[in-house]
Amino acid sequence: AQSVTQLGSHVSVSEGALVLLRCNYSSSVPPYLFWYVQYPNQGLQLLLKYTTGATLVKGINGFEAEFKKSETSFHLTKPSAHMSDAAEYFCAVMANAGKSTFGDGTTLTVKP
Amino acid sequence: ETGVTQTPRHLVMGMTNKKSLKCEQHLGHNAMYWYKQSAKKPLELMFVYSLEERVENNSVPSRFSPECPNSSHLFLHLHTLQPEDSALYLCASSQGQGELGYTFGSGTRLTVV
Known about the structure:
The complex is a heterodimer.
Chain A: E1 2-7, E2 10-14, E3 19-27, E4 32-38, E5 44-50, E6 56-58, E7 64-68, E8 73-78, E9 87-96, E10 99-102, E11 106-111
Parallel strand pairs in A: 2-11
Antiparallel strand pairs in A: 1-3, 3-8, 4-5, 4-9, 6-7, 7-8, 9-10, 9-11
Chain B: E1 4-7, E2 10-13, E3 18-25, E4 31-37, E5 44-50, E6 53-57, E7 64-70, E8 73-79, E9 87-94, E10 103-104, E11 108-112
Parallel strand pairs in B: 2-11
Antiparallel strand pairs in B: 1-3, 3-8, 4-5, 4-9, 5-6, 7-8, 9-10, 9-11
């Protein structure tokens, strides 16, 4: 079985501030982990992924995430928020082949 | 250009109509998916096709009928829908079993009246 919990359905930060979006997962086998971003009226776009190897993964648009097995977490961070980062973000886990389970999403608002 | 194209982008249909959603991927992937995204609800996996064979059908009502004629095309045939079927329908594709992630289309916004 696999599941994903995103803590906080809405996060608001000021432009230039740190972005931290939280994701915890549950998986009976070593998981693959993903973060996706969805802009209004668009599909989801892959930001970054963890498969194996280095636990700190870097993605597009300056985002990164760290896989922490002991905490079953895969939080997404960005040092300095930009107005264009405002979107909905989804964490996903894949432990069963061919089936990703998505979190409920976190809406990021960036204030000028 | 995401590599996955969905048409139409918007669709309004009556409950007695029959319509089809189309998805085409230009990435050489061998798996394709239909997801339903409703307001205030998590993404729902509807169907999975791998190598053109349906490998998953998540208890989706029979008024939704998928078709995958080849590895590049995926359809979702709709008939006698209900207002609660109004949602954003997303198509995605992946190579292998999705270990490298999915590529999504921009979706079809469906409204059932």
